[in-house]
Design a protein that fits this description.
The complex is a heterodimer of chains A (788) and B (344).
Chain A: E1 2-4, H1 5-9, H2 18-27, E2 32-36, E3 42-54, E4 62-67, E5 73-78, E6 88-97, E7 106-108, E8 111-113, E9 115-117, H3 147-150, E10 157-160, H4 172-183, E11 206-209, E12 214-223, H5 232-240, H6 248-260, E13 265-268, E14 276-281, E15 287-289, E16 295-297, E17 303-307, E18 310-314, E19 318-319, E20 332-339, H7 341-350, H8 356-361, H9 368-383, E21 387-388, E22 392-395, E23 404-407, H10 409-415, H11 421-430, E24 434-437, E25 442-446, H12 457-468, H13 488-502, E26 506-507, E27 513-514, H14 517-524, E28 546-547, H15 552-562, E29 567-578, E30 581-593, H16 605-622, E31 628-631, E32 637-647, E33 650-658, H17 660-665, E34 672-678, E35 699-708, H18 713-724, E36 728-737, E37 746-755, H19 764-782, E38 785-786
Parallel strand pairs in A: 11-14, 26-29
Antiparallel strand pairs in A: 1-10, 2-10, 3-4, 3-6, 4-5, 6-9, 7-8, 12-20, 12-21, 12-22, 13-20, 14-17, 15-16, 17-18, 18-19, 23-25, 24-25, 27-28, 29-30, 30-34, 31-32, 32-33, 33-34, 35-37, 35-38, 36-37
Chain B: H1 3-21, H2 25-36, H3 41-48, H4 57-91, H5 111-125, E1 129-130, E2 136-138, H6 139-142, E3 167-169, H7 175-183, E4 188-197, E5 209-219, H8 224-239, E6 245-252, E7 255-264, H9 266-271, E8 283-292, H10 294-299, E9 308-315, H11 316-324, H12 331-334, H13 337-343
Parallel strand pairs in B: 1-4
Antiparallel strand pairs in B: 2-3, 4-5, 5-9, 6-7, 7-8, 8-9
Helix pairs in contact in B: 1-2, 1-4, 2-4, 5-8, 5-11
Classes of the chains: A alpha+beta (788), B alpha+beta (344).
The complex binds zinc ion.
Chain lengths: 788, 344
Amino acid sequence: MRVPLAWLREYVELPVDPQRVADMLAQIGFPVDAIELRPVVTGVLVGRIAQLEKHPNADRLQVGKIDVGNGALLTIATAATNVALGQTIPVATIGAQLPHLKIERRKMRGVESEGMMVSAEELALPTEWFEDGIMQLDEALPPGTDVVEYFRLSEAVLDVDVTSNRVDALSILGLARELAAYQGTPLRAPEFGAFAPAASDAPGPRVSMDSPDCTRFVVQEFQNVRVAPSPAWMRIRLALAGQRPINNLVDISNYVMLETGQPLHFYDAAKIPDGHLIVRDAREGETLQTLDGEERELTPRDLVIASERGAEGLAGLMGGAASEVRESTTSILLESATFNGPRIRRTGARFALRSEASTRHEKTLPPVLSTWGAQRAAQLLRESGAKAGEPRVFGIAQPQTQEIAFDTRDIKRLLGFELTAQEIREYLDRLGFTVEPAGEQTLRVTPPLWRRDVTIAADVVEEVARMAGYDRIEGVIPAVAEHDISSNEYVLEGRIAATLSALGYDEVVTVALHGAQIFERMRRAGMEPTFQPVEVLNPLSEDQRYLRSALGPAHLEHLARLDTPARIFEIGHIFYRDEGQPLELPSAAFGFTAEPLQEPPWHDSHFLRLKSDAIALLRELTGRSDFEFAPDNRKGLHPGKTAAVLLDGREIASLGQIDPRLAKAFDLRLPAYGAWLYLERIPEFATPLYRPPSRYPSTYRDLALLCDVDTSAARVERVISGAIGDLCTAVRTFDEYRGAQVPEGKKSLAVRATMQRMDTTITDEEADAAIDRALASLRDELGITLRA
Amino acid sequence: MSELNTQLRELRERFDAAVAAAQDAQALDAARVAFLGRSGEVTLLRRGIGQLPAAERPSAGKEINAAVELMEAALQDAEAALQSREFEAELGMRIDVTFPAPPAALGAIHPLRRVTEDICRYFQRHGFAVVLGPEIEPEYYNFDALNIPADHPAREGFDSFFLTGNLLLRPHTSPMQIRTMQQHRPPVAVVVPGRCYRRDAVDARHHFQFHQIEGLLVDRGVHFGHLKGMLTGMCRELFGRDQQVRFRPSFFPFTEPSAEVDTTCPLCRASGSPCRMCGGSGWIELGGSGMVHPNVLRNMDYDPAEYSGWAFGFGVERMALVRYDIDDIRRFYENDPAFLKQLA
Ligand SMILES: [Zn+2]
């Protein structure tokens, strides 16, 4: 909310420095987003045009004699076309400082000009909101008056943030009230005069309250209304507050709203039959032309203010064109009403109508504001010459707030510091609360009528804290008692990150929303997405319509962008639909791009590197090392270079080379390798137990085996280790060969079997016998022979 | 002069020549084997003692032993001299220690994780658990249970991405307050790092995806001062030991009283002049906090007369921007290797 400081100062004494005012507001919960300082303007006086003639040497100029008080007449030439004899205007005198120039004596086409007639622009007001040409001031202003001082144009404007619970403070008066309370200074509220509503059944305008969503409606008729521009002070004040001046009636309703917080609406009284307004649900199929010219289709969910002939306006949002105030209007009906905020908001959202008025109404205004709004409007309308009828109140006659039983010990209990009962009472009193003692530690606290947000003891604590100052809260470290809440998931993530970074992978955080381009790339690679993606119903753009169903695609895009060998990992959630329902799983993925190696096609060192990293990571996560790698088929991975990692028969990870077709579809130049973990299946860390090594020497035998190409190293190792039995401490394949040196369909594997006894030194005879058993088993089970 | 003496002298002369000629350990060893080895020349000489008259044998043995001792000593000296020559050669080498080292094969931890981990470590040290939660949440956890009923104007502040049904991408980590309190009775002491989403247009300070860290402490006797204590400690852990924390009144439906939390701007302090990060105010806004609203406690069947608690929710990106003096939030999701390596 834009708050001209000059306006605020009218109701409360404040420090000169705008920054200090801003700091105070922040202290009590109204942060100031910006302080708009006004440019320095001096030497601008009120002038009256005493003479006006055509310039002797220039058709487009006029020369005036301007009365600036004390009998002085200044000769000033102007090119403006809106000047006329007798007008009261601002005049910049010799030496005046304007935002972008300094006024000096000068000749205009041979005529000495002793100053400059001034437009809104020279006063740093929004020009498009004021008359073209020279600004027009009120006739009543005495010539010679300092314009900047009189209109307080040098005062800063604050942009104040008001939280949604404090609609009472969404006004100049509301903020003045808060500042007065905080400073302990008096609030100089404007004198509204008595509010003496007529009986609601007396003759005159009346309102049928046919919906519970309007709790209060003040209506008042005004006659002898004449639509005209507002006085300069009001136009200037509205403009500084960010409201465009329109005419005196519109301006008064805006002015009252900004000052009291209560939005108003004026109806042309001649257009409302019998002065009878009806607050009701709209009818199915009913239409209303709002004053922005839109024809709107209403439903019973919309609340309207109607006359007997039909809807006249959308409650709290916008009036109707039919009863709009026009130049010809001579009498009006004022509406100052309280609505159910959510209902106003819903209709506003449906029609995309948002205004200063609706942002107030949709927070449900305190009913008492409707009285203030009507009072202030009546006062300003009277000043403009209107004749006021008596106000009438429908709905809540006397607004009230609920008393709260307040235990003063709650201050210490919730804030940690102590205040005396007297301090508490003093603070609440300043804020307009009624406080009465009710027992040893208890106070009966009644919030002021405008504070509908204060309903429980904790609210009272906050009020007291605001006044005492949040700086009174002292920091203490709590002694947290034992509890059994587990951090396991977080610990797992930390281990993954620590291990993968130690293995040389950089952690990335990619965006979890993506567009259809991922699917298009997959289709280009001949792959249909396996999963049904989770879709956002209201994305900001098509690029962010889907939640990722894997971490990989974003990584491929990233690696393609880098276009140089890189190693990356990410931990994050993935999403897909399972029988229509969104499913969310934690995931971790790592991978790399690398230059292709010069090696036989049946050997892939990059794959082995990936596998080695996967083993290191999984070992760190599980405490186990008995992982089984099984050939697998996964969409997106090379069909011959994919493995599933199994632990206790459960698949806990997948890894392999990225399918070259997919890599190409992602514009990857380098071969890429990736692995991902199914985090929800990773078993809890199993602490390994120490097994003392044998104190006796071990021995080994290297075997060159000839086997079928399809026989896996793991299979061979299992057979060997099974045949050797307890003596076997390790079996490890360390070389592979395929090609001309071995028969078609065969490969050679070099395997080392290591043997050892726990109780004594193993003999060569024992070792040889064990190897013979192993060779026999290899021959019988797998048809494997020793390579000649 | 006996024949033995002559033989010994002649043998010594050849031995000395061999040792003197030896340029390395191998040659020395060859000399040792040739003269003093099991079937070396000295051994042959000793065999000759048996042919001497019995009376001469002892003195002959002595003479041979004395010669052997001298030869072994000479060998040791030669070895030592050789070793010291080798050391001299080795130690005379001068490399260029300024020659660039190859980069270590250590990966970078993302700065968002670093910040998160530092905060979590601080809270863990004080007895808090770290829990994680889902990013898709029903409205109940996002709003209703947090005292933000369907018609509440505050819902608008959470401009959320909606999915099917009543599900949405969480716009804050606060749903985990509810999930944690549903599963545990007080004391509840947790921090919750996690990813959140809001429909914010992307610019230098905003992104539709961001990370929050939530804190929640509920027990008997918990008050606002405990929050200030913990947050001050957290800021000191994160930004330096002189950090101060201040509260400003604010409004959140799930806390009462509520506060915005600011910490002193570490960048202004470091440079001694107003910076663009805090706009020269000297304070950095961290986020919202407050005492858990009694309605929230009641929703969890906690008696608000018996238990009290506080909660906070801060943006991790914001803290990382300040901590590393980064100009643009988008850097965190670009994952430029140079950016990551620099902050690792
Ligand atoms: Zn700063």
